Amino acid sequence: MASSGHHHLTETFTNPPNYSFPHNRLSNVLRNPKKTPIVLVACGSFSPVTYLHLRMFEMAKDFVRQNTDFEILGGYLSPVSDMYKKPGLLSAHHRVNMCNLAAQDSDTWLMVDPWEAFQTYQRTAIVLDHFDHEINTVLGGARTEDGERRHVRIMLLAGSDLIGTMSEPGVWSYSDLDHILGRYGCLIVERAGTAIDQATDSLARWRSNIYLISQLIQNDVSSTKVRLFLRRGLSVRYLLPNSVVDYIEEHGLYQDETAASSHQEKGKEREREAGSGSKKEIVSQPC
Ligand SMILES: Nc1ncnc2c1ncn2[C@@H]1O[C@H](COP(=O)(O)OP(=O)(O)OP(=O)(O)O)[C@@H](O)[C@H]1O
Ligand SMILES: NC(=O)c1ccc[n+]([C@@H]2O[C@H](COP(=O)(O)O)[C@@H](O)[C@H]2O)c1
Predict the structure, then answer these.
(1) Per DSSP, what are the bridge partners of residue 75?
(2) Distances 160 to 103, 183, 193, 194, 215 between C-alpha atoms, Å
(3) Compositional bias (Basic and acidic residues) spans (predicted)?
(4) What's the CA-to-centroid distance between 46 and ligand 2, angstroms?
């Protein structure tokens, strides 16, 4: 495993009340002893979770099988805390519930960890340390079929827009980047509107720990677009799991324009559209 050598695992973590680490779908057996066991962690708002978020895990699974010596033991969605205060961020309670519905609906290896959602904002480097602690220290890592103990490597799963922010000044500290990309590593899924090479150029020193996954079927669904559709009373069915669409309808979510700072959201969506070179309006009518 690559290690920066300068950083140590965070020793103490603040847990939300009544918290227990979900590991019901986490495999603790490494089927191929020649492989390195990994766990994928996707950090984000998930407001709401869409099929694109779930596709990221499937794309990563195919990529890992075809191009690496890793074996995936499980995947986690880790919704960010309400204190992240991003426009359109619905309460953690609803975001976690929707992620749980989506994960239940999906394959058998996805789970939702509410650890960061239900407490103060935690930086991504700390979130990955938390997973490392729970999986390797508390659960004792994985075992081969012969009973040999193995350290599980935690890896960040993200879209190329997120990796793009890693070269923007002031968003991530150098020591956090070194911790995330040096100690753990990252699988990056190409996202329409973000140049993947440009996004990773400035991260070249950690190149060996960054895996780029191209999108063979272009899909630019975003949570921002889903929120815009909902506010305009448009259908979002088949963009996200039915159980999540039903949950949104039942609870009347994403109807309130002011709470969601729609102004900022439209700006953000236009930026992304402009970045992708597309001049199309998402919806022909203005809000
Ligand atoms: N269409 C997509 N293609 C590739 N990656 C994506 C896509 N949508 C989301 N992601 C990735 O999923 C992770 C979680 O993202 P997040 O919840 O912030 O979703 P989002 O759709 O970007 O939300 P918002 O529109 O509210 O900014 C991020 O790493 C993001 O890059
Ligand atoms: N310094 C950091 O640790 C840092 C900076 C920016 C975003 N993030 C994380 O990235 C995820 C997605 O953020 P955005 O939706 O703002 O792109 C969130 O989970 C957030 O916590 C972490």
Answers:
(1) 40, 110
(2) 22, 20, 9, 6, 11
(3) 263-287
(4) 12
Strands, sheet with 29-30, edge to edge from the N-terminal-most edge strand: 29-30, 142-144, 149-150
Q: What residue spans define the domains of the chain?
A: 36-256
- Token pair 């499937």 in the structure block, residue: 58
pTM of the full structure: 0.90
The answer for residues whose C-beta is within 8 angstroms of residue 149's C-beta and 6 or more apart is 140, 141, 142, 143
| Distance set, CA 15 to CA 12, 76, 112, 114 (Å) | 9, 17, 15, 10
Taking only the tens place, the pLDDT of each residue in 252-276 is: 999 976 444 444 554 454 444 444 3
What is the CATH T-level fold of the domain 36-256, as seen in this structure? Rossmann fold (3.40.50)
CA 167 – CA 201 distance, rounded (Å): 9
Contact 119, 85 (CB under 8 A): no
Query: Which among 260, 268, 280 has a CA at the least distance from the CA of 94?
Result: 260
88 lines ligand 1 (CB under 6 A): yes
Instruction: From 10, 123, 203, give the residue whose CB has the most ligand 2 atoms within 8 Å, as the site to mutate.
Output: 123
Dist. CA 256–CA 253, nearest whole Å: 8
In whole numbers, what is the pLDDT of the chain averaged over residues? 87
Per-residue three-class SS string for 161-224: HHHHHCCCCCCCCHHHHHHHHHHHCEEEECCCCCCHHHHHHCCHHHHHHEEEECCCCCCCCCHH
